[in-house]
Amino acid sequence: MEQISWPNFGAYGSTSALMALSGGAAIAVVFLNAAPLWLRLPVHFAGGSLLCLTRPSSRRPSPSAPLEYVGTALTIQTLLDFLLAIDSIQFVRIVVVASDWPGASLMLAASPIVGITAMLSLRRLTEAAPLAEGKRR
After folding, report:
1. For residue 50, which of 22, 115, 121, 130 is within the disulfide window of CB 3.0 to 4.6 Å?
2. Where are the domains of the chain?
3. Tens of pLDDT along 30-52?
């Protein structure tokens, strides 16, 4: 699968934009807390779908991996992705019990903020150019 990249955004900018949209959906859910489920559910679905597009398992393995290890790299990426998802689901459950869904939504909005900061910092590194196929916009 090709790297997700909108024209003139580059790989880092595209991923950051998807994270920002997902974080915006998580924040929107906080304001829609009293709204009926039929209105909140599409916003939840859109935010989760956008965030899934930013995950490593939604893209091919790192172009810097030697060709003979591409399968191994993909396996490790997928494993780490699932482990992160399991931990996240358990942590969200704890936050929901402690503070209800608005608190959990705000916590979920923090994840894209950290991700955007990391992507924009990574974009500045010359060593990271191969990860975005030389497109460091």
Report:
1. 22
2. 10-132
3. 888 888 989 988 988 888 788 77
